[in-house]
Amino acid sequence: MIGILPNRWTTPVTTSMAATAATIGLLLLPVAGQARGAPDSFADLAANLSPAVVNIATTQVIKGSPGRPEFMVPPGSPFEEFFKEFLEKNRPKNNGTRRATSLGSGFIIDATGLVVTNNHVIAEADEISVRLSDGTRLEAKLVGRDIKTDLALLKVEPKGKLPALKWGNSEKSRVGDWVLAIGNPFGLGGTVTAGIISARGRDINAGPYDDFFQTDAAINRGNSGGPLFNMNGEVIGINTAIYSPSGGSVGIGFAIPSTLANRVIKQLAEFGRTRRGWLGVRIQTVTDEIAVGLGLEKAGGALVAGVGPDGPAGKAGIKQGDVILRFDGKEVGEMRSLPRIVAETHIGKTVKVDAWRKGKLVTLEVAIAEMMESDEKLAQSDENAKPEVANDVKLLGMRLSTLTDEARTTFKLKEAAKGVLVLEVAADSSAAKYGLRPGDLIVEVQQTPVMTPADVAKQIAEIRTANKARKSKKVKSVLLLVQQSSGNRRFVAVQLDEKAMEEDKKKE
Length: 508
Known about the structure:
This protein is an alpha+beta fold. It folds into 4 domains: 109 residues, Thrombin, subunit H, CATH 2.40.10; 102 residues, Thrombin, subunit H, CATH 2.40.10.10; 94 residues, PDZ domain (Pdz3 Domain), CATH 2.30.42; 115 residues, Pdz3 Domain. It is 20% helix and 32% strand. It has 12 helices and 28 strands. β8 and β9 form a beta hairpin. The longest helix has 17 residues. It is elongated and about 75 Å long.
């Protein structure tokens, strides 16, 4: 039994209450930020929107028993165990191929038959069919898909015009707004659930452009690809994933915002693929320690760890070590926001980029190119190998050495590789905490190139000398540019030796 409790925070003001207030000289004014009550009913919205929400079935030919098609009951269905036992008993005892079917959700965005869903709903499918709300089944063709945002566009050929939904502006949706989800959970079509937007901008490590809505509207397996509506009946999200230890809804679901989805779907409709802007840099997060090392007042922006010489950034003069703070007039508050901003930039457009470079703000103009997929594989190295090298030095919790031909062979480093070789890393050191490993090369210290352990020691000594002259805001870490065995470079802020810093304090 479910009890419905009255909302005691939104008690309506009655006529008698107003009269009483006037008698005692009080003026009733609306309270800023006062919550609005829940809608009386979602019935009208559900009735108007449901016809444009569809069920999607996919069939895949897989190795197994020949004969009749096998229906895969969605995980978590109350019929799962029954059908599993039934099919096991009646499955022919020989090998061959069989057809497996699974279900998902989608919605119509064009009366001629364009249907949006998640890529993972139709991935690896040999056949795709769409079932309309009236039970009509239509074969669907794949127009295009985008793996990075998990979106797909299908096309069906209806006999007449279909009901279609309108996109809403997800940027206007706020945390706490009511939302409605319609879909096909556990194979049960036409299911309507309601809730609110619980959070915005969620990064769930699903892809490079994560910017999910979080909602507590009940979303389960089979809801994937279904629409999330605002109270105007507009699609503001596409239900894509859930967080659930049990496999069922626990009130944490995720939806792709319509602002992102609409742009991708338009490109799939026009080109059959996505066309994203490309800058040609590798970036990393600016931590508090790195910000201090670069002279920034606060952590923020995207730190350029590598620049492709033939890419737009390289041609425009963006350099390794720059911190991109603004791109095309948009603030880059954190590293992960830059890929989305660049991807949404029109190909061929020249934009202004504000970057922090060695204590100064510089402005560059970059002509954005189109991103092309690359399957380049990175080389592997033996992390446990330890070459015999003389004249090694212990600094910053690491054993460092000059790079030799023997070391290049042992760690499989290219002839062009330059820097100071990391031989060992103490397990309890700051260097280990930030992922430095044997075989890494220290290319720069405090944005100054280094070739020998003595060069590293010199830069550390300069920091300590400068610290002695400072009365406050002493530098507690040293900024390293590290080249990994794969060839990728990244910046790391490693803490200075605590013992040495204590000795400096005593000398003061």
